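The records we work with from here on pair a chain with its fold. Taken together, the tokens spell out the fold as the letters spell out the chain. To see the layout at work, look at the sequence and tokens printed below.
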Amino acid sequence: MNSYRDLRVWQRAMDLAVECYDLTKVFPREEAFGLVSQIRRSAASIAANIAEGHGRDSTGAYVHHLKIAQGSLKELETHLILSVRVGMITGDRTATSMELATDIGKMLRALIRVLLDGRHERDE
């Protein structure tokens, strides 16, 4: 694998970011600097941290950035749930984003596990 762009988790994270940008187009104008900004920022942060971690020179730094991506993913899920609860959007409209988020979370955990197992094997 030569590039972070080859990682399926990064590709799915990019899909999620695009979905979230589309999703927030229907939010009220007064939310441009509120939930819209928070949703877009956290969604973009997931893919960005996967890419940044991939570019680091150590497994530990890579795992650190993947964990930051996990945090951004949970932040995004929370913002989406709040958006539904305050009536800015329907749960049906967020279903695709939430499904993508679940898949990405599983992929991030699996990638972290593989990286940590590989690091442990090298240390022995």
Q: What stands out?
A: The chain has a mean pLDDT of 93. The chain has one domain: 4-123.
